[in-house]
Amino acid sequence: MQVEDEQFRVRLEDAATIAQARALIANGQQKNVNGEIARGSGGFNTGYSWHLRPATVAFADVTIELCDGMPSYVEENVDYYVDTVKQYCPWGVRIVSEVGTQQ
Fold it and tell me: Angle 28-32-35 (CA atoms, 0-180°, nearest 5)?
């Protein structure tokens, strides 16, 4: 995922969400990503001390401003996002690529 000039990774496990992400990439479309935020990289959001819980990741046309922010801002405010906001939904996010597939 890319927000302006910053990137972060999400893991998608739901077949419908994976199909939706692939369609967004193929069509060059953009939707906001939204999910429950948790501490730790989750083993896939390398370089960050947070991740979106895979089972909660979804794409939306509109999300609330409270959970918006650059990935670096979230990194600087992990406790606030995890303990208070409880989700992350950056605006203007673009799916850059599919990194790998789960067997």
Answer: 130
Measured CA to CA, the distance from residue 98 to residue 9 in angstroms comes to 10
Reported as a single tens digit per residue, the pLDDT across 70-94 is 999 999 999 999 999 999 999 988 8
> For residue 58, how far is the Cα from the chain centroid?
9
The pTM for the full model equals 0.90
* DSSP H or E stretch at residue 73: helix 71-76
Q: Spell out the residues 6+ positions from residue 85 whose beta carbon is closer than 8 angstroms to its own.
A: 37, 66, 67
Q: Which of 77, 95, 100, 80 is nearest to 32 (CA)?
A: 95
What residue spans define the domains of the chain? 2-88
Q: What is the pLDDT of residue 9?
A: 96
User: In sequence order, which residues have a C-beta less than 8 Å from that of residue 94 and are 6 or more positions away?
Assistant: 1, 2, 3, 30
